[in-house]
Amino acid sequence: MIINTGQRTDIPAFYPEWFANRLRAGYVCVRNPYNPQQVSRYRLDPGVVDVIGFCTKNPKPFFPYLSLLEPYGQYWFVTITPYGKDIEPYVPPAEQVMESFKFLSLRTGIHSIGWRYDPILLTQEYTKEWHIHAFDSMAGVLEGYTETVVISFVDLYQKVRRNFPQLQEVSWEDRVDMGKAMAEIARRHGMEIKTCAEGRLLEPYGVNCNGCMTVDVYEKAIGQPLEVPVRKQSRAWCSCYLSCDIGAYDTCGHLCRYCYANNDVRMVQRHRMDHDKHSPFLIGGYRDGDIIHQVPQQSWIRREQNLFEI
């Protein structure tokens, strides 16, 4: 099966020791964000967990614990954008994260890491031309360390509008202009460019619009075919296989202004104070009335049938 860590928070950046402890303990508990009494308990066992997927803006804090991942398949999406502190207050400088990216690529292998340049937003300072120039420069630094770059444009969810009221939708014309330019830059630097939940708008310009964290990405990372259960997609235009996320909302300390996973800065601060690196839960612990569900797990690696077993 696949365990994901990054749709709700950035575990490698802010909770590395906790996740290391969960790997050592061999299990993790996840509270349902919409029904808090419901708790899912997952085994962290390479016999049933084929791949662990990461999405992070700063993988470096987890580097001391990378050896714990050696029994597992893994895939890392590292988001690197060159915004200033006005947009990403607590994200390390892009130059620093690119160095971490290169280290991680050499450690895990080029098939197990991808670069995300997203979300793309436009302001008077961060113009189309600015993005294209920054993307070109960064692609040059990361050339040879990944085969994949993913782009997407900012989504104006209700909480994003509330936290960043000045933010405007990126027009279709601007999406095409930037997408065409970035596709050419990616090709020049030996990368396949993909979009995340953007429909087919950029497909005519050589952009792969079939999803970013898809089953074939995981298969390539581990070098084996997967036979995964059919799952209903949670978002329109999204073909990613997102399952079993062990994070929690309102816990990411980057505090990016465009973030959809944080609803309230005060709640983030409160939750981080409730974090216990020894707890089975990312935030808090067991509560009275908890209903613990041991999630059925099995390997999804498709074993080729031995002819002598027929």
Largest sheet, if any? 6 strands, parallel
Number of E strands: 9
Please report the number of helical segments.
Answer: 8
Portion in strands: 15-25%
Uncertain parts: 305-310
General form: globular
Number of domain units:
1
Based on secondary structure, the structural category is alpha/beta
**Looking across the biggest beta sheet, what order are the strands in?**
1-4-5-6-7-8
Straight-line N-to-C gap: 26 Å
Describe the structure.
By secondary structure, the chain is an alpha/beta fold. The chain has one domain. It is 27% helix and 16% strand. It is built from 8 helices and 9 strands. The chain has a 6-stranded parallel beta sheet with strand order 1-4-5-6-7-8. Helix 3 links the parallel strand 5 and strand 6. Helix 4 runs parallel beside helix 6. The radius of gyration is 20 Å and the shape is globular. The protein starts with a strand and ends in a 16-residue tail after the last strand. The C terminus is likely disordered. This is DUF1848 domain-containing protein. It comes from Allisonella histaminiformans.
